[in-house]
Structure formats: C-alpha cells, structure tokens
Specification:
- The structure holds 2 protein chains of 2 kinds.
- Chain A is an all-alpha fold.
- Chain A has one domain.
- Chain A is 60% helix and 2% strand.
- Chain A contains 11 helices and 2 strands; from the N terminus they run αααββαααααααα.
- The longest helix of chain A has 30 residues.
- In chain B, a hairpin with a 2-residue loop joins strand 10 and strand 11.
- Chain B has 5 helices and 27 strands.
- In chain B, helix 1 runs antiparallel to helix 2.
- Chain B has 4 domains: 92 residues, no CATH class; 103 residues, Immunoglobulins (Immunoglobulin-like); 127 residues, Sandwich (Immunoglobulin-like); 145 residues, Immunoglobulin-like.
- Chain B is α+β, with helices and mostly antiparallel strands.
- The longest helix of chain B is centred in the middle third of the chain and has 39 residues.
- Classes of the chains: A mainly alpha, B alpha+beta.
- At the A-B interface, strand 1, helix 4 and helix 5 of A face strand 4, helix 2 and helix 3 of B.
Amino acid sequence: MHGISESAPVISAPPPTQLTGSVPAFWPALVLALAASCITVGIMWDISWHETIGRDTFWTPAHMVIYLGGALGGCVGGWLAIQNTFLASASERAATVRVFGARAPLGAWVAIWGAMAMITSGPFDNWWHNAYGLDVKIISPPHALLGLGMFGISFGALLLVLSRQNRLQDGAGTGLFIWVGGMFTVLAAVFVMEYSFPNMQHAAIFYQVCAIQFPFRLVCLGCAARTSWPATRVAAVYILVECLMVWILPLFPAQPKLAPIFNPVTHMVPPPFPLLLIFPAMAIDILLRQAGGATGWKLALVAILLGLIFLAVFVPVQWFFSKFILSPYANNWFFVGNRVWDYSARLGNWTTRFWRANPSDADADLLTLKALVISWGLAAVSSWLGLLLGGWMRKVQR
Amino acid sequence: MKPRLLLLVFLTLWCPAPIQAHVGSPDIFYSGMVGPWLTRITIRMPGVVPGRAEILVQVQSREPLSVAFTPLSSRVALSNAPPAELAQPVRGETNLYTGELWLMTDGAYSINVRISGSAGEGAVQIPINSVATTQLPLPPFLGQILLGLGLFLFCAGIAIVAAAAGESALPPGVLPGKAEIRKYWKAATITGVVLVLALVGGRRWWNSEEKDFRSRLREGGWPDLAANVRVEGSQRILHLVLGQTAFASYGPKARIELATDHGKLLHLFLVGQPNHQAFAHIHPVRQGGTTFEVALPPLPEGDYELFCDLTLASGLSSTATNSVHLPAMPVGAAAAGVAVSLEPDPDDSWAINSAAPVRDNSGGETICSLPGGTQMVWETHPPLRAQQDAGLQFQVRDQSGQPVRLEPYMGMMSHAAVLRSDGRVFSHLHPTGNFSMAAQMVFEGKMAKETNPASGQGAVDHSTVDDWCGPGAGGGSSFISLPYEFPTPGDYRVWVQIKTDGQVKTAVFDTTVM
C-alpha cells in the first residue's frame, strides 16, 4: 500500500534496503492477531464470569477461548520455527533470527515464549488456588506470569506485522497492527482494572498506575506504526473492544452459584465503561509528529513532554468523566454506571462515591500536587521506554 | 537469584505442616435421618478459602433420588443464597451421590442437604467452618516441572532479547557485525539482570502473599486459651481465659458470645500426660466476658492437655488448646470439710485408669471392661485406614453378655473423643457426627426466623432433649455408631462415654490407623 499519511518517526528508520529475503507470508500475523484477540476477549469474559457466576472449572467457555489464543500463538510460533529451521530456503532463513540454534522471525519467538509462559502459569495457578484460595485476587504471581504470556503473544503478533511492513516500507497490515495494538492496550487496562474503577478515579494511585501503563503502550505503538494518528486509532480500538464487552455481556442471563450473595445479579456483569484514552492518545500523536528525529537528551525531553501532555489531558478528562459515570445519568445500558458490581458486593452508597478521595478516610490517597508530580515522573519514564521500544520496533526487519 | 535457589527457598517455606482445624480433623460427618431416609453425609473441607468442599451423600434407598446442596452463610439472608446444586449419582453405585460447593469467604456456613423421592422429602443442616486450615506444600514433582519451565523461560527470555538486539534490525541476509555482537551481549546481560531482579521481586511478592495467608491460617487450636489452677479450700479451680490475643482488638471488657452445645457453653477435655492415663470431660462456667472456671474432678497430680470445644454465636465452632499442671488434691482441707466455692457440673465425667486401654483388634471384637461389670464391645471391622469409614460401632453388654439399655448423656447416647498419640489430632464425636450441634441449632434458628418470622419459632435444641437419642442408635438401644474417618495415619486413643444406671462410664481403646 502506498500514499498513506504516516506519523513522523521520532527515531529515524534505516533507509530502504534491497531485499534479500523473500516477502514474508501474511497469514502467521493474521493468526497471531486472532490469538491475541481470543486472549483479550477471553480474559474479559472470564472476569465477568467470576463476577457473575463465581464458580468455574478448567472447561468454562471463557477459559476455552483463552486456551485457544495460547494454543494458536504457540502453534503458529512453533510452526514458523520448524519451517524456518528445517524447511525454508536460504533467502527465507536470511530473514529470521537465531535462538538456541533454531531460526524463526522474532515475532514467532516472542509468541512461543508467551505460549510457554501461559502453559507454565497453568499448573502454577492451579497449585496457587489450592494453596492460597481460588482467585482471591486478579493480580497474583501466577496471573502475572499468565499476563506476561498474553503480552508475549500479542507483542509477537505486532512484531510479525512490523517486520513485514518495515522490510517492504509500506503500510500493508496497518489495520492488523492497529487492531493488535488495541488488544495490547485492552490487556493493559484489564491488568489494572482493580485500580481503575470509576470510584478510584479521584485517587492518586489511579493516575500513577495509568501513568505507568498507558503512555508506554501508546507512545511505543505511535512510534512503530506506519499510519496517521496511530495512538489515536489504537485507543479507538481499545474503546471499541471494551464497549462491545460492556454492551454484549449484560445481554446474557446468568446467576451466581456461590455464597454469600449480597447482590443477586441476573445477567453477566460488564466491566466499567472504558477509560477515554482516545484524548491523551490524540495529544501523544500530535506531539510525536512535532518531535521527529529526536535522539539522546532530546529524546528524554520528548519523554518528559509526553508524560506531561498525557497527564494534562488524561487527568481532567477522567476526573470529570468519572463524576458523570457515578451519577444517575450514567446508570443505563450504554455507560453501565452502577451496574458493574459483582454478586458479592453489598450495594450501598459506597458504589456511587469516590474511594480514597476524602481527606478524613483512613486510606485517603488524594491527588495532591506531589501525587501529580510523581505521576508525571512515572508517565515520563513510561513514555521514554515507549520511545525506545517504538524506535526499535520501527527498525525491526526480521 | 537463580530459579533453583528461589525454589529451594519456596520449598523450605512450604515444608509439610499438619492439617489443623478441629484439631487436625477438618472433615465433617453426619449420620441420621433426612426425611424418611437414613443418610450418611461426608463433607471434605478445603484447606483454603475460597475453596471447594466435596460432599458425599449415601442414602439407604435403592430408588433414584434427587439430592441437592445449598451453602448458607451465617452472614447472608437465606433469600440471597445461591440456587441449590444438584448432586450427581456415583457411577456404579445405587445410593451414593456426590457434588461440590465453593465456599468463598471465611466464617460459619451450613450446608443444607435436601433429598427428595417418591417416599417424600427431607433436609438437614450441617454446620461447617469455612477457614483456612492447611499450609499446602509444593509437591516435588510439580516443583521440578515448574523449575524446568521457569529455567526455559529464563534462558529463552535472554536469548530472544539478545537476538532482538543483535539481529532483528538487520536487513535480511546481512550478517551481524562487531557492533551487533556487542549489542547482543549487552542486551543478554541487561535482560539477565532484569530477569534476576524480577525473580527477586517475585519472591518478595510471593512472601508477602504467604504472610497474608498465614495471618488468616487457623492452625491448631483457636482461639488462644490461657489456663491456670488454684486451690480453694477442698477444690482445685481451673481458670480459663479465651482469646486474650485473638480478641484483643475488642478491648479488655470484650465478651465472647457463645452458643450452648448440649446445654453447656464449653466442653473441656483434659487428657493426662504423658500416657493419656487420665481423662475428663467437664464444663466450665462463665465468670466474665472471656473468663471461665470449673471445679476439677479428682484427677491425679500431673500435666494435662486441654481441648476446649466451643461454638461462637455466629455458628463458627472451634477447639482451643493448651496444657496445664494440676497440683495434688488438697486432702487436708477436704478432710477438714471446707465448703466448696464452685459447684461441679452434674454432667462432668472422668476416668482414671478405671478402664485400662484396650488394643483394638480389627479382626474380631475388642472388649473393654467398665466399672460394674459392664463391657463395651468394639465390633469387628476391617483394618482402619485414614480417610476411610472407621466403622466405630460399639455394643454395651452386661456381665452375662446381654445388651445393656443405654441412657442419654447430655442428649446423646454417647460422646466420644479421638486423640492421636502426638496430640495433633483431636475430635469430639457423637452418633450424629462430629459437627457442632450448637452451630446446627444456630442455623436452624436462622432458617426458622427468616422463612417464617411471624411464627417466633426457633430451632429445636436437639442437644438438650434427653429423648433425642441420635439416629441409627434408637432410644434405649445398646448400640452406638459414630460416623467418622480418621484424618491421618498414626496411633490413636478413643474414649467412648456412655451412661447406664445413672452413671457415666468411659471405655478406652487404642488403635492404629494406616
């Protein structure tokens, strides 16, 4: 594809080179994108399952979708490793990287690693349940390993698309890249869900967690993509996928099968309405376009500015939007304001109040100037890492 | 830190620890009528919360039945209980049903077991404690698998990042130069350091989770029990303080609210050390919010282990443990006729070598001679194995071998206590099972109140109704059946208490469980 409007790379890419390797096949990236989508949808479905029905088994549909994602990622990565190591021509092998003596595209290796991490987390998580209790927390060591595995598969998909794009110097697969980037961002949002409920959005910890998670991803994807408004598009996919889950899940009747039930829900519980990342993403895109070619200390300066602009847009947007979400006006099927509570929640005024935002609270965590500065620092570091990774991703050819 | 070292640290942390609850015997057994059917129910408790309880229901009926379970929490209205879970028949069996329930929070629960068939319908409440009792070790084979996978991820992570730094940005066909090789090793080194730091951080995280879990773990007796003995006139008074540490946050004037079990707030068992030669089952009375006292029976001087059964008003039952030294009996003062300061409970009972322990003979009857020429016969049963029906069936006979009519003792045809030789397993049994009848009453009262608040009817206190002799035994029968499974292998002593001719008698058996 030619003639697309690209965002200017912050870190310049090498000049076009004469291809010595053959044009890589498109289908592995497509299957890995499907794997990443399965994982993302599966994990959101599984969380809703736990919040609604409570009880699960190894064989729940949500788990099956996650396993399918892991299996697809592992199989595609494994096949690419076998094919490129034993069956490929010299020119095909020349477009791969070597790991443990075998050859495959970098994205395939990352996907294999992700699948192995997911496999490892299985028995680890099963034992963890027996040792410490069933899914007491979303964020636990085995779940962290599972999350890393999921990250690996979605990142592997991104790398496969990118290596093809970077070698051909065109925008083929941009849609796929944006889609997988969206999944990549949804996964980040899922992992910080415990900190990002609307009720938490007047507490400092929410902004600090988001400052760690989102600038890194949006900046990195914004640098690596070969299209206009990449971070904005990725954020739009994130919002679309989250909204679809928010709207579709409550269509299915379900009831809790565990005690104690304080909130007798009758349909699948949706996640809260997504964060309005599209606004800070637009700001990031604009700044990235203006700051092309930065290196060294200028790159650090760009990161500091990116962190600042992210918070400058994100904080007021979420501050006021969360007020709306907690208001009666948002208590409808579209915004699911007060419909996100699981079967074990004792409903009360606390569901429409901000948590940790009252100075008299024992666990108060106010968004003070100091907290904002800390958030800025975190967002700057996150952006700097995103710039470095994104700059490298733009150069990946294998 | 290398994964192997990490794993060793973790394995050290998770060295096998005894399962402790009631004490060391967490599973619950019930035997009795459910509607028109004689039923035996086993609830295998999870060692953690949240966890899955496995339920087995054996019904004496050959007709197909519908068996359903519902977990009821003491803190939740019945209207908010989940839908009943249908038990599945066990393949190849005509009267055995099984299912599992998830218990999500700490606290008192009751499992409502409902059976229905053409002959009618019936239900029973079986109280359970949902508490973490087990520190599960990491099985060695799983440790090895995780170690192998972890090692692969560690090495592969370094290799992939190194390859990414060294080769991935090169156009196809271009071989890595010196600069790329330098990048390769630099990336490998940095990734190695990052992964090691991640492992160290992971270890700290894991330790933090472990610490949090251990703070909720109820190993051994609970709550804490302080005990001392003072001599007052002709009596030795045992003074107990419950939960000085466990309930410290409630302040010095806290009052521990207890439900009565067989009409008593506490059932205290004293077992003489070191050979368990003396045994007493006594009932302290409240002296303050958390203090209780009891006049000790004429047990010989020495060290004693204490096992104190109690049921909180919420329905949560527990056993507090400690040990105490009993001074010699104040013979002189007693002879001088000093008035007693604390009246003994009329249901207190004890045994001091009155019946020498009899070694269980699984191949035939085992006979323990009791005072007055009575005999208790442990009927023939297969060799005892852990977590299998112990077949604790006894018959009481007179000197001529004729069955003796048993009288209720605190509403039961029998009370029994089981103690493993190392003191790590203790259980208090009745013909109905090993659950707390006080807790059962709490839940029956809750159900009655919530289903028909206008009636004002509470639950029947089975434990104080002297004509309620326990299912499977029959009023006035000479037979006793105690549903129980020994939790772990080891040497056990079993005390079985019965009442005949107005006297409580205690038979003592020793047995080995494989």
